[in-house]
Amino acid sequence: MSITPYGAQRTHGAGTLRSEHAGETVTVAGWVDTRRDHGGVAFLDLRDRTGILQVVADPEASDALEAAHRVRSEWVLRITGTVRERPEGMVNEKLPTGSIELAATSVEVLSAAETPPFPIEDEIDVSEELRLRHRYVDLRRNRLARNLRMRAQTLAVIRRVMERNGFMDVETPVLTRPTPEGARDFLVPSRLQPGESYALPQSPQLFKQLLMVAGIERYYQIARCFRDENLRADRQPEFTQLDLELSFGDEEDVYALMEEMFGEIFAEVLDVTLPESFPRITFEEAMRRFGSDKPDLRFAMELADLGGVFADTEVGVFKGVLSGGGAVVALALPSGGELTRREFDEWTEWAKRRGAKGLAWGVVEGGDDGPTLRSPLSKFMSAEEIAGVLSETGAEVGDAVFFGAGPVTFARTLMGALRVALAEERGLIPEGRWEFCWVVEPPMFDPADESDDPTAANAEGWVPNHHPFTAPAPEFDDDFEQRPGEATARAYDIVLNGVELASGSVRIHDAEVQRRVLRFLGISDEDAEEKFGFLLRGFRYGVPPHAGIAPGIDRVVMLLCGERSIREVIAFPKTQTGADPMTDAPAPYDEIALGELGLRLAPKPSRKN
Ligand code: ASP
Fold first, then answer.
1. Measured in angstroms, how far is the CA atom of residue 205 from the centroid of ligand 1?
2. Which pTM value belongs to this model?
């Protein structure tokens, strides 16, 4: 036996009917999308997962007409009738079913519905809270239904590519011990072991490495990961990764696999052909040229380091910053001369909100002796300096030049953020472009103040840039402890249009190097034994060299769908404060159950929202 395509209660999907069905008697079922009641005749648009069909009830079938008078938006109906061509002039080109209609002979109400809390339309102006509270209604909207379909399609392609390449789907536990990825853990107290707790995995990292010890060689999983972070920007406490790991391979295998996979996803889901391979750019180069470790390569506006140009400058701020080892970084904004004084001031305020002391700017103007810079600072600049600014930034007549100064990373990051903000504001980012790149050779360690979780820092203030299982670049194998600020890691990110889609690395597969990294991070051998003893023990039984990566599915699908938030591509997401307005989770817990867990909840602090 096999299941019928549309279920036993109907013969066709509403959206599948075409002129070729004219004359056939069919039964369809779905929701009332819209209705127009003209008294003598009533028109209903019936919606199901396959699309929309116009149904006509007229006095020839009086019972059907009577029922059609009664029904309201979003009632669930089953309708039998005859498919017929629409009269001349009534064809709706926009609808795939637009050449036909269904002349109803019977209209059966399967369920009545209250008036929906908001219209089922693509563009609606209602609060996200209301949409999430009634997510089941929200998901009827075409846009969200399409997003979920594209998500499922993406996952199907992923599974196919992984299986084709010999990767095996293995599930790893959700109730487990902490896996460090730089966030806080969600804890699940144990009833059977009072006083003890499971942690939800921040990723399957440790298990996938142990699967390599186990000889699986090629593992993948569509894995849910849990990270208890302050929900800044567009994060979810639980999110989905394609998690994968491979043995006896290295960076090149991961690059090739991901390029094949993304190529196939984009071809199939968007009909877009990606290049065979993605450009690779080192972390250092990305920071220098774009002021970001996730460079948006859809537009130029590259940063220029003006340390050389201003080496002997009389511009006080630049001189001070450069003599203190900082950087002066500039970028040219095409046609930025159009900006008003007020707009320049607003960008200066923008920079101050990000901790800058200010933002210098100038406009390139034509002159008899060639282009010059009109700027509050230009009277302090020599002609050579101005020429240097123009040649380093590539600014032309009519462009604006912005200058940021400060400690090197700060100045670069500030100007990198300005680059993106200006390009967005001025509409300089071309639509429909997909610029992938690999960002490689990142630092092995970051100063804790740049990290998500400074509490994880060692005594000298270093935290891992990726995670503590990432291999150092071979030239730092012996002495990363002595030069932590220089050491690079065998790690890589995939960046698309300025969004980080995946991080991964070649792993440490030498128990001694692993211990040294953990020790350097301030994790004593006893602590390591306590926290990751199972991994280190596993490594004693023969571990192959291995590498892996984990693309974030929510972000990938968000970009494919052209959405700006991952919440639009998750069926039941949580709000920015980690709440679900539909289920009202998280919720106070039953006292008895808490007692069994040996727990008592502290009184709820007053909530801001
Ligand atoms: N476990 C890592 C993460 O979640 C990815 C990886 O290294 O494979 O970022």
1. 6
2. 0.94
Name the stretches of the chain with pLDDT < 50.
609
- Give 242-268 pLDDT, tens digit per residue: 999 999 999 999 999 999 999 999 999
Query: How is the chain split into domains, by residue range?
Result: 14-111, 145-281+436-569, 299-425
What pLDDT is recorded for position 181?
84
Distance 183 CA to ligand 1 centre (A): 13
Question: Which of 176, 179, 202, 203 for a ligand 1 pocket mutation test, highest count of atoms within 8 Å of Cβ?
Answer: 203
Class of domain 145-281+436-569: alpha beta
Q: 378-411: per-residue pLDDT in tens?
A: 899 999 999 999 999 999 999 999 999 999 999 9
Q: What's the CA-to-centroid distance between 288 and ligand 1, angstroms? A: 25
Q: Tell me what pLDDT residue 588 has.
A: 84
The two tokens of residue 61 are 């079938």
CA of 260 to the centre of ligand 1 (A): 19
Provide the pLDDT for residue 186.
95
CA of 456 to the centre of ligand 1 (A): 17
Judge if 145-281+436-569 and 299-425 fold alike in CATH terms.
no
Contacts 24+ apart (CB under 8 A), 596-599: 596/191, 597/189, 597/190, 597/191, 597/194, 598/189, 598/194, 598/195, 599/189
Question: Model confidence over 344-359: pLDDT tens digits?
Answer: 999 999 999 999 999 9
d(CA 440, CA 284) in angstroms, rounded, equals 9
Element (H, E) at 133: helix 128-133
Which candidate, 252, 226, 250, places its Cα nearest to that of 237?
A: 226
Q: Which residues line ligand 1 (CB under 6 A)?
A: 181, 203, 205, 503-505, 548-550
CATH number of 14-111: 2.40.50.140
| CB 488 within 8 Å of CB 441 | yes
Q: Which long-range contacts does 583-587 make (Cβ < 8 Å, 24+ apart)?
A: none
**Which residue, 332, 324, 309, is CA-closest to 381?**
309
**299-425, CATH topology level:** Gyrase A; domain 2 (3.30.1360)
* Ligand 1: residue whose CA is nearest its atom 9: 503
CB of 101 closer than 8 Å to CB of 86:
yes
Residue 76 to residues 48, 98, 111, 112, 506, Cα–Cα distance (Å): 10, 22, 5, 6, 54
What's residue 608's pLDDT?
Answer: 53
Token pair of 538, please? 């596993």
